[in-house]
Specification:
The complex is a heterodimer of chains A (about 450) and B (about 180).
Chain A: H1 18-23, H2 28-36, H3 39-49, H4 61-66, E1 77-82, H5 91-98, H6 100-114, E2 118-123, H7 128-143, E3 159-164, H8 174-181, E4 205-209, H9 210-222, H10 224-229, E5 231-232, E6 235-236, E7 238-245, E8 251-256, H11 261-266, E9 280-284, E10 293-294, H12 311-314, H13 318-321, E11 329-334, H14 339-353, H15 359-376, H16 382-395, H17 403-427, H18 429-434
Helix pairs in contact in A: 2-6, 2-9, 3-6, 5-6, 6-9, 14-15, 14-17, 15-16, 15-17, 16-17
Chain B: H1 11-21, H2 33-44, H3 49-58, H4 63-72, E1 84-89, H5 92-96, H6 99-110, E2 123-128, E3 140-142, E4 145-147, H7 152-164
Parallel strand pairs in B: 1-2
Antiparallel strand pairs in B: 1-3, 3-4
The chains are: A alpha/beta (about 450), B alpha+beta (about 180).
């Protein structure tokens, strides 16, 4: 069983209230940071911890913090990205709902390290009930002297507020999030300038995921070196994984990075195996945007190594035979699931969520949705599969923000690994409406398949 | 622009608007817009042009700044909807667990199609994209409440409940 750094106390009755949270060691990291550490000391611990962004990109947090511009007299901000909308991901909601003070504690320490006196939690509008939980906890933190003027006599003034989105996947992209926080449509900005230089209200800004900010708490309490002892190589610490799909025990799991994928899917402490004794067909390990893996590449890599829950192992083999850890949205498909239908479903999602700024994404996602709809509904032609490949390749890398890539990758991976199932949909349109194609056969990966 | 002076928040909501705008530095009050629109929608049920114009006046914005935001985000309704919106998640993991079956079950039960409102004005059915409840699929949101692990029996029960009391709490307010 993996140890728990974030969810250790999540099961304790009343842990969402200040008194219980405090009794269980809450706000210790704030005391330690404000009394005995400088902002640079905190940055150093975060760097030593090896913590990487938990929202999906996996960028080293300490490095991101060190890019923050510090011009004289210009306020800086930390913005927490609680927009969680990557299909397959529901860990931040769980953390905020169960143990809201952990996020607040992380926001205080991180903002102190960054020299931010006013920070925001931007939460997706659909989590309005979680916003209320957070606001209640923030009020308790103010009432107990952890927020506001001169926190615990340290001289550090810090205000924290939570503000909602209103339904837009794109606002999880950091510059779109900033636009939305400013009260605008969520259109991503051109970069550079990066938010670290010109972010919220054109001020230097760091945007971090909920889980990333929460992880700063154990890093400060126990030290960056302790945190870095967990995991393998450049994948340090624990990670929250949202497990869904055809498994016996869906839910949120905190795992040590480095756990084997096989243990995670089949172990009784985790997903508990495939539901109804069925066979594993495929897995999307890091949220809907990352490449889907066919059953024979899930637990082993193409090289025959054990596949591990790390940034490196999940991407071993590149997009040819690997995927990504992403946000940790782990979706499992059994032998009865239809890959064409799932790909169409995701394409429809990206088309719905495209902000419309860049033509390759705005138009391309719509075309992918239509072509996939035809294939899935028995109206596809053989050349549609190549057309689909062509469209996705023209979106990837040609848009302002990564939503275009996120829409292209799942389609590319589905064709790469499941081409025979797509072809079967063309050849057997009536059959494909009735039953699942089942498991695909193992492939050798010497050349690109299209 | 012609002003419809019948539209105004009660004092309690004006206090709430003040609390929200105070979260942001002087001159950055536009940041309150999304939340104030949620308040307006919660209070009046949907965002008519008159209501959006009122919000613009309240926050010292041009009406177009409000319209473009209200039409960008999927949670805002610029047309009248039912008192209870049943928003069923249709994305990937929910689809695997039978979201499509739940949507057609509700369509048949209420005699409406996805996107429509029942004649009595109580229910609107809307299929929506991922709501972050993938491990508890299939699910729907009504007001701000998540109804998870849906079955046909659970759908029957919650429709019955909302029929008796067609109120879906949203932002801690009762939407009546």
């Amino acid at each position: 069983m993996s140890r728990k750094l974030l969810l250790e106390n999540a099961h304790i009755e009343g842990i969402n209230t200040y008194d219980v949270y405090r009794k269980n060691g809450g706000y210790r990291s704030v005391e330690k940071a404000l009394k005995s550490m400088s902002p640079d000391d905190i940055l150093e611990e975060v760097k030593k911890s090896g913590l990487r962004g938990r929202g999906g990109a996996g960028f080293p947090t300490g490095m991101k913090w060190s890019f923050l511009a510090k011009p004289d007299g210009v306020p800086r901000h930390l913005v927490c990205n609680a927009d969680e909308s990557e299909p397959g991901t529901f860990k931040d909601r769980y953390l905020m709902e169960k143990i809201p003070h952990l996020l607040i504690e992380g926001m205080i320490v991180s903002s102190f390290a960054l020299g931010a006196n006013q920070s925001y939690i931007y939460i997706r509008g659909e989590y309005m009930y979680v916003l209320q939980i957070l606001e209640k906890a923030i009020k308790e933190a103010y009432d107990n002297g952890w927020l506001g003027k001169n926190i615990q006599g340290s001289g550090f003034d810090f205000d924290l507020a939570v503000t909602p989105g209103a339904g837009a996947y794109i606002c999880g992209e950091e510059t779109a999030l900033i636009e939305s926080l400013e009260g605008n449509r969520g259109n991503p900005r051109m970069k550079p300038p990066f938010p670290a230089v010109k972010g919220l209200w054109q001020r230097p800004t760091v945007v971090n995921n909920v889980e990333t900010i929460a992880a700063v708490v154990p890093i400060i309490n126990d030290g960056g070196d302790e945190y870095a002892k967990i995991g393998i190589g450049r994948s340090t610490g624990t990670k929250l994984i949202s497990a869904s799909g055809n498994i016996n025990k869906p839910g949120v799991y905190e795992i040590d990075l480095g756990l084997s994928v096989e243990e995670f899917i089949y172990g009784d402490d985790y997903c508990g195996g495939i539901k109804n004794g069925k066979k594993l067909k495929a897995c999307v390990p890091g949220g809907s945007s990352v490449p889907i893996l066919p059953h024979y590449l899930v637990c082993k890599t193409a090289e025959g190594n054990d596949r591990l829950m790390t940034y490196e192992s999940l991407s071993e083999g590149g997009f040819e035979t690997g995927s990504m850890l992403g946000s940790g949205g782990f979706i499992v498909y059994d032998e009865d699931q239809c890959i064409v239908r799932n790909t169409w479903n995701f394409a429809r999602f990206y088309h719905h969520e495209s902000c419309g700024q860049c033509s390759p994404c705005r138009e391309g996602t719509g075309w992918m949705k239509k072509v996939l709809h035809n294939l899935e509904h028995g109206k596809g032609k053989q050349e549609d599969i190549d057309l689909l490949w062509d469209i996705q390749s023209k979106i990837e890398g040609n848009t302002i923000c990564p939503l275009g890539d996120a829409a292209a990758w799942p389609v590319a991976a589905a064709i790469r690994h499941f081409r025979e199932e797509f072809e079967w949909h063309v050849k057997e349109p009536s059959l494909s409406q009735e039953k699942s194609y089942g498991l695909v056969t193992e492939k050798q990966f010497e050349t690109e398949t299209a | 622009m012609e002003e419809n002076n019948n539209i105004a928040f009660p004092q309690s909501l004006l206090d709430e608007v003040k609390r929200i705008t105070d979260m942001f530095p002087e001159g950055k009050q536009k940041s309150a817009l999304l939340r104030v629109l949620h308040l307006a929608q919660s209070h009046w049920g949907y965002l008519s042009v008159d209501i959006m114009d009122y919000v613009a006046r309240l926050l010292h914005l041009q009406p177009i700044e409000v319209y473009e935001v209200a039409t960008f985000y999927s949670m805002y309704d610029t047309e009248k909807v039912g008192k209870v919106k049943l928003e069923v998640c249709r994305t990937g993991p929910c689809m695997i667990e039978g979201a499509e079956r739940i949507i057609s079950y509700i369509e048949n039960k209420l005699g409406i199609k996805d996107g429509e409102t029942t004649e009595d004005g109580i229910f609107t059915l809307k299929s929506v994209e991922c709501l972050g409840a993938c491990g508890y699929a299939p699910m729907l949101q009504a007001g701000e409440k998540f109804h998870e692990h849906l079955t046909e029996e659970k759908v029957d029960a919650l429709i019955e409940e909302y029929r008796k009391k067609p109120v879906a709490n949203y932002m801690g307010l009762e939407n009546e």
